[in-house]
Amino acid sequence: MAWLVTGGAGYIGAHVVRAFRAEGIDVVVLDNLSSGHADFVPDSVPFVRGSILDREMLERTLREHNVTGVVHVAGFKYAGVSVQKPLHTYEQNVTGTAILLEAMQSTGVDKIVFSSSAAVYGTPDVDLVTEDTPKAPESPYGESKLIGEWMLRDQEIAMGLAHTSLRYFNVVGSGYSDVYDTSPHNLFPLVFDALLGGQTPRINGDDYPTPDGTCVRDYIHVADLAASHVSAAKSLDAGQVLEPVYNLGSGDGVSVGQIMATVAEVTGIDFTPEIAPRRAGDPARIVSTGESAARDLDWVMRHSLADMVSSAWSARRSAQ
Length: 320
What we know:
single chain, 320 residues, alpha/beta, Rossmann fold, UDP-galactose 4-epimerase, domain 1, two-stranded parallel sheet, 40% helix, globular, Epimerase_deHydtase, UDP-glucose 4-epimerase activity, isomerase
């Protein structure tokens, strides 16, 4: 028996896969490598290259590997780009999830942990986001994740699907020297690429009503995130009933200015960030609580900001 990790060759998915293996749980990876990397998957883990849009392939994979549950990480994850590519986003994230659920139903796989997103909240008008904060997604990406949660809820009602969805904001750091964030849109890769290219990183706005004038966000270490995915899967395997959604948040957040200062300290590259104009729609502060996940999913912020930066920098440098 094994768990299937869709998107298991990506930055987050690969950490989830290795967290499963560290617990001695068999796992299978499915990834079309549109943004993932085959060498992120350990040699000992079965790897199926394919798309969640291919129902026949999904059903075959679920049967051949005796899959009992799915961690669904695969999807088109770029919120900004999704505004320009809404139909592509819905195809990958909504149609793809529906096909996955159909394949699970037809093969008797009745457990799923869904990698959702705090993008479902949009720009909340609260200092601390909870699971009950009103949902108001501002991009097709955020909308697609909310629809995914609805589909899991409806399958529970119709078919008894055991499920939970994990919402989180900014995932950073690395748990392994050979797995790192390769997204062209995320803060850490952008900052590291600028420094390695002899350029100066930039901050969008330094006049927000925050302690240092820069935006405050929720940054969590990818290894901590992966551990809670595995904890959720183990709970579902044990027949425990989980909440339909959990926020994986820090509870306090850090500012972009703090990140830049920590990057300079960790890398040993002295720089003063360029200050660019504010980006439209950027709220001063978005931070989420993780209290429910701490209670049920072993959610703990085990890594400091310095840990996050140093582990990400080390993995990025090893890739050169």
